[in-house]
Design brief:
alpha/beta, 278 residues, TIM Barrel, 11 helices, binds pterin-6-yl-methyl-monophosphate, 8 strands, 13% strand
Length: 278
């Protein structure tokens, strides 16, 4: 039987449009997700609804990476995510964590992908991913969530993020993760000013040219608030526009809160893009 990782990678390879990753944050606070799940059952039901709406993978996270957020212990992260992952592990689930111990436990619970906003900083996370032959998302972040928005500075944001991602990709490969299981993410909103975020979004085709699938997470983020002047609960239209534009620019996966709407957006983008290519 093909593993769920292989199922997800096959969907990625055969995609006719960008895949949609549904965000399932089981945290008391997060950047942009105002949903609160009273019980594990509520979170699982939301995960199933996102799948029904067309999510190719669910990204379950138990640590808020909101700017200024305080870290939680790996034990607390496990306590939040494992009961949600287990019942959803009949289809692809990604664990959003920076910690090897959490990744390891989530993979045992049935996750098939590790989404690491620290770009593989914990060698144990890379080892756990390699042992499980899971897929791996390496994201760029400058600093930590506690400090990342304190005056972010780059001389050449696109070049620096690109070099970081390629260096971390080589580190993951050296740790045993197969090259064709790695996705890269410029980390929109993670230690970047508005100009930095926009430069990185505009550079999506350049980042994609390295041959690794690019994942973009823009949904409901403060970048969209700055552009539109809207609070987080009014950013759905801007998020859908960003999903369409990201997919049109060559992103392979969009990480979103609004799955059905984003799926329509990436389908429009794919049709538009294929008309340009043909
Ligand atoms: N953004 C958030 C959390 N995890 N993972 C990846 N790969 N890319 C992202 O952009 C990303 C992420 C923070 O957003 P949320 O609070 O809305 O989940």
């Amino acid at each position: 039987m093909a593993s769920l990782t292989e199922n997800f990678l096959a969907q990625l390879a055969a995609r006719r449009h960008a895949l949609v990753m549904g965000v399932l944050n089981v945290t008391p606070d997060s950047f942009s997700d105002r949903r609160r799940f009273a019980t594990v059952d509520d979170a699982v039901a939301e995960g199933r609804a996102m799948r029904q709406a067309g999510a190719a993978v669910l990204d379950v996270g138990g640590e808020s990476t909101r700017p200024g957020a305080a870290p939680v212990t790996p034990d607390e992260e496990c306590r939040r995510v494992l009961p949600v992952i287990e019942p959803l592990a009949d289809a692809p689930v990604s664990i959003d964590t920076r910690h090897g111990t959490v990744a390891r436990a989530a993979l045992v619970a049935g996750a098939c992908m590790v989404n690491d906003v620290s770009g593989g900083s914990d060698p144990d996370l890379l080892a756990a991913t390699a042992e499980a032959r899971a897929a791996l998302v390496l994201m760029h972040m400058s600093g930590t969530p506690e400090t990342m928005q304190d005056a972010p500075r780059y001389d050449d944001v696109v070049g620096e993020v690109e070099s970081f991602l390629l260096e971390r990709m080589e580190r993951a490969v050296a740790a045993g993760v197969a090259r064709d299981r790695i996705l890269l993410d410029p980390g929109i909103g993670f230690g970047k000013s508005q100009d930095h975020n926009l430069a990185l979004l505009a550079a999506t085709p350049r980042l994609a040219a390295h041959g690794f699938p690019i994942l973009l997470g823009v949904s409901r983020k403060s970048l969209l608030g700055s552009i539109t002047g809207r609070p987080v609960d009014q950013r759905v239209p801007a998020s859908i526009a960003a999903a369409a534009l990201g997919a049109h620019a060559g992103a392979a996966v969009v990480r979103v809160h609004d799955v059905a709407e984003s799926l329509d957006a990436v389908r429009v983008a794919a049709a538009w893009r294929s008309a340009l290519i043909e």
